[in-house]
User: Fold 3-isopropylmalate dehydrogenase from Pelagerythrobacter marensis.
Amino acid sequence: MKIAVFPGDGIGPEVTREAVRVLQALDLPELTLFEGDVGAIAYRRHGRPLPDETLEMARAADAVLFGAVGDPSCDGLERHLRPEQAILGLRADLGLFANLRPATTFAGLEGMSALRPEIAAAIDLLIVRELNGDVYFGDKGTRRLDDGQRQGWDMMAYAEDEVRRIAHLAFRAAQGRKGQLVSVDKANVLETSQLWRDVVGEVAADYPDVALEHMYVDNAAMQLVRDPGRFDVIVTGNLFGDILSDQASMCVGSIGLLASASLGQRETAFGTFGLYEPIHGSAPDIAGQGRANPMATILSAAMMLRHSFGREDDAARIESAVARALADGVRGGDLGGDAGTGAIGDAVLERL
Ligand code: NAD
Ligand code: IPM
Ligand code: MN
Assistant:
């Protein structure tokens, strides 16, 4: 089992360390961990946010555990040198087009939701975010207009193949859950979204057992806080999925709790190759203080065992240990408590 570990910047190394401890505590056969540089640290050491050595390491691995990238000191760099290009480059190069971001209520945590506890109690949803297209990867630039002022532009585009493959994946995910799929777009305004809606509607014919609903993204943002329990699977594009998943995290209680899996088509000897990371970033405001909640990264390691290694039992063990730690009142600063990063890791390890 070859796992490439890319801790990255800010709290990335802090939270990744705890997830690695959890992996090492399990009895995994022939576990080999490789560590590589990504983000601002890679830029400082190698002059590039995603060095070739790192990319090679990812390609040679069965799965990647990713911390976070981003550093305010790099905000002035040319775009291709910025830390964020590391994660975008990995997603593109490795063909990771499907980003699964589950959001589920934790027993005892309802009071930490930004919503009223009775509204937060029933959250059990999965956001399926397309990860290789949209405005993220379209042509972009800054140009001079005739009157001399600058104009920034980013092209939003989806080819129907890109929509079709993520739609199939989302329908299959819904089949394995409650059979309800909400496709989120802005088809009342955007051509990209009209095509998205048309193609998702075509794919629906293959899944008569799944109930499909189309929803505009502004309404979806509202419904997500009005009644998040109404959602089962949400499928959406790269940008809308990015925004809605941060929002979903506060419906559950904290961005320090939400894990993700980024999958493509490559199969390994064990399962589907994937990259696993918390949905949060490098949190420069708390970096280096041992205050970050590592649960999102630990839960990402659980998703790795499930999707890339076929080890459902180990995945469920980790998830149960995290859930019990939370039920027992283990709380990081993000949840109003004072448990530090290492103490939260200890609490999860004890419950494994
Ligand atoms: P962020 O997610 O890093 O932080 C937002 C807020 O949430 C901050 O107040 C932070 O302290 C808090 N937070 C985040 N994770 C936490 C955790 N595990 N425990 C406790 N609190 C936590 O978002 P941001 O501040 O907008 O971005 C900071 C940097 O991270 C930027 O450079 C951004 O580009 C980058 N970023 C990277 C990724 C990634 O690597 N995949 C994801 C998002 C943002
Ligand atoms: C995420 C992040 C990234 C994204 C950034 C850092 C490129 O916000 O993983 O959610 O927008 O996808
Ligand atoms: Mn994000």
User: Anything to note?
Assistant: The mean pLDDT is 97. The pocket of manganese (II) ion (ligand 3) is lined by residues 242, 246, 279 (CB under 6 Å). Residues 108 and 326 are 7 Å apart (CA to CA). Residues 160-175 form the longest helix (16 residues).
